[in-house]
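SAMPLE LOG
Freezer: B-3
Tube label: C17
Construct: single chain, 229 aa
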Amino acid sequence: MDISDITKNLKSFESGEITKEEAAENIKSASPSELSLAEIELISEGYSEKDLKRISEVFLEIIEDKRQGYMNELEENHPVKRFIDDHEKILEKMDEIEDMVLKDGNLKYSDYKFIRKNFEEFSYHHRNEEKTILPILKDKGKRGRVNLVKNEHRKIEKKENKIKDILGAEDLDNAITHLRELRYLLSKHTVMENNYLYPVALERIDDWRSIKEKMEEMECMNLEIKKGD
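STRUCTURE (predicted):
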């Protein structure tokens, strides 16, 4: 699909001339690479990350229908499948944490330890992406998208640190508000990565064996660190 047609359509959505559904219908035949090139073009024209986040709603509308197709084609231990499994586990753990804080009203030491441990696991997942697929995508011209993903990682970690401070002060009512905000951040981030970042990675990255080896190496290092705790 012609990149100029895609950018023109996205600008029409951003300006409010057409709806998200109309924009998605107009460019539904575009590939992840073509969408990425259109995004790069918009960045070069001065569109901000805030603008790109809104425009990504159109991308997600298109790629959501394609996700199951690429998932079915991947081998069981493929890095992308592992990342998607991580996302499911992260959201499940967030539900557990929120239920724990709502239910108990008076957290025990073991509860605090459980929350901190899971926040560390969330950060490990983000570092795993930043050490494997993100540098490759950056080298392949996806700098804007990579920076957006990393910025979201930092926002998530900042929110987690805020929650740990609040829990340390035993302000559970305030903690619930921030936990729900964190759940929302993680949910939005998961949708973006599952439906946009990973399809682009599958299209542009060839050497998944090296990525798998890097992930296994990081897992071994993580296990060694845990033993020393």
